[in-house]
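Structure tokens please, single chain.
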Amino acid sequence: MKKVLILGVNGFIGHHLSKRILETTDWHVYGMDMNTDRITDLLENESYKSRMHFFEGDITINKEWVEYHVKKCDVILPLVAIATPSTYVKAPLRVFELDFEANLPIVRSAAKYGKHLVFPSTSEVYGMCHDEEFDPENSELICGPINKPRWIYSNAKQLMDRVIWGYGMEGLNFTLFRPFNWIGAGLDSIHTPKEGSSRVVTQFFGHIVRGENISLVDGGHQKRAFTDIDDGIDALMKIIDNKNGAATGKIYNIGNPVNNYSIRELANMMLELAPKYPEYADGAAKVQIVETTSGAYYGAGYQDVQNRVPKITNTCEELGWKPTTTMADALKKIFDAYRSQVAEAQKLMD
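Here you go.
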């Protein structure tokens, strides 16, 4: 029976991971977050109450609670981070303060108490790497100039990876995982109409629900390898289980190279799927695809990556894992999940 500490338990990965742990294992989840909207059903489920331990708090404030629970638990997942591109451009210091500075004491506590640290790196650390597949062991990490603040997220995460690796050289049991565009229900709020505030799938879905135009930045030719959240959680569960220590000291890309599509293709796929649902058909009929520039959409400090495909050889071989969800099925699951919330999102236009 493991005790798993999830900081940011109400977040996209946090709430999906907690649900899987409670449904499929006898492990205990100790979670902290500032909100509970995504985990309400877990907190209210009578059969989970003995194993779901929640504290409403902030990692930057409730530092004693965090350290006590790092000491108490077996596996530590610090999932609190800013991961929206518009924030990288408009508030880079906030990104550094939360994603690096606030997480550093947690890393140090994991090292101090000899815990298994499972830390979320990011596909963004590869930056504008020129490799056809991004290799966690060999690919160069290439970022743009200082006057493009979008790279502060990539740099903060990369520095944390290097710090964690350094602690690993001194005995820390760690695993770094790099999610490649994980998508699914609960990624962001579909009720947020402000452009650039959420990740691309949620952004497009919100526009479809509300009957708004979809903006393609710089033609939408950038490609991303999209990964269904359930496939990602499958890999995370194997990392946390860490059978025979297989995941210790490793860096894993967790992505689906088969689901590599341009943002324009994504928009078209979603617009083709929406009319098949009576709840979305009216909104989708009003949507037009328009083009904009990255400067107009995100701000002058933005710079994009044209292709981002993960090499997952070591992830598959060492964890006994492989992604199985097609892009069509991943999108269908999102459309299915929000059918009951359409009216709420549309009210925002009133």
